[in-house]
Design a protein that fits this description.
By secondary structure, the chain is mainly α. It starts with 5 loop residues before the first helix and ends in a 14-residue tail after the last helix. The chain is built from 7 helices and 2 strands, in the order αααββαααα. It is elongated, with a radius of gyration of 21 Å.
Length: 154
Amino acid sequence: MTRLGDLERAVMDVLWDVVPGTSDGVTVREVADALDGRELAYTTVMTVLDRLAGKGMVQREREGRAWRYRPAASREAHIAQLMLDALDLGGSRDAALVRFARSVTGTEAEVLRAALGSEAGLSSADTATGGADALTDRVDRPVGRRPAGEAAER
């Protein structure tokens, strides 16, 4: 996934904040008006939106002589993809994930535990009473090593 420049990010922020998922999108003029503090020419905003469409970041549909734009994915999906792309930069994905897991706040760790518990089919009660501890143990344990007597996971 391509990283966004400052102006591209500002335009995407407008789309993510203004365009609900069910909307038909916004016009170049509407985006330019939402970026009112930046004093950008209409053609500059049009060029940025055209480039974002070329990168697959926005979808556009013709409406008369104008285009209507909307994000191709949610902000959260974009950020998640950036994180996955960062893991692919090289080195050990496992080491990077462990380092990340150890750097998050307690609240963020709870969100991750709940999401992992949901993926693993654990109920919220399991997560609150120890189901998530198994996930934490997997992160804290060096990759490829199991405590003595523990069976291999399938």
